[in-house]
Amino acid sequence: MPKRKAKIPVWIDQYASSVRRFTFNHDHDPLSHLPFNAFRFYPLYFDLWLDKIYRAIMTAERKKHGKDRIIKAMPSYGSLKYIFYTLVNMAAYLDYDPKKAKAVFDFFVKIMQATSADKNIFNEHKNILRTRHQLKPIIAGLKKVSGEQEKKTIAKFAGVLAMYNHALYNDFSTEFGYSIEGPYQLSAHEQLLIRHFPQLNPGELWPSLAGARPSSVIIYSIYREIKLRMRFVTTHLITKDNYQDKLTGYSVIINNKQELNSDKLVSLAAEIAERTARIYLEQKKLNFEQTKIKFLSQQGYELKGLFDLVGLDWRPDHKLLSRVRNKKLKSGGIIKISFPADQKEYEDYVGVSYLKKVYV
Question: Is the pLDDT of residue 254 over 80?
């Protein structure tokens, strides 16, 4: 009997649709991102990065670590989506070993399927991780906004944390330290956003921050009479209005404890703003070679939980460092600015054609 052709997984079409506007939109222009255009840095070493992730996955499976333990070791859902995006892009660009690639893709997809409460794990406009029942105790603990000053305090606090996170993790690892969950439609008039800042003192990356507080912040916010959506990655929020003005309820959780005192939040925002400036200055002092190493360290730190679980060092090893040392960013047609002429050209460019080849 002739061999039966493998069925292409549904998630591939979902992925193909979801990354279109994200890839070819001005708010995701890697040419303008800091510290440099990573998609012209990746080609120097990304096969080694894929090999390391593959090795970690194979070790985890061989040691039979339970799914719950692995999920706990992984970064946020938003971070997983963006990491997956880079893996697909670069595996396709490098024509990486299909067998290894499939193992890596399957691993990430299974983690996302187990984490998400959405049938479309690559939902372009939402990041839905909880059911309405799971949201009930959160909603019950929210404080009603008392006035305009309180709205400004919460908006500024969230904004300062976002800037601080950028200083810590750069434009290409942003979602590791700052991801947004939602928007959850609570009624015809209200939406809930949950902002996560899980690692605010990464002493392994920035020694001056070792032991600094706070280490984590969660901000729950309800907005009224506004429509919010995302563009694939969770921190790219889209709205026509100034949604901060629409805040009606909130809760701030700092190091697992609720903090609703506005004066304390204002004081903490000022402290974090000063810390942000200090980290930016540290980054600015790095030369190009040091910046490349910092970038690789930030990338490795995103999957530190997985590497720690299987006994691999998350930091760039000698072989990887040798690959990038004294090398310029790769020029050429790695980044396409104009939108592809047809669907085939689009699928070739974003790696969808490669995905279909891997899963045939």
Answer: yes
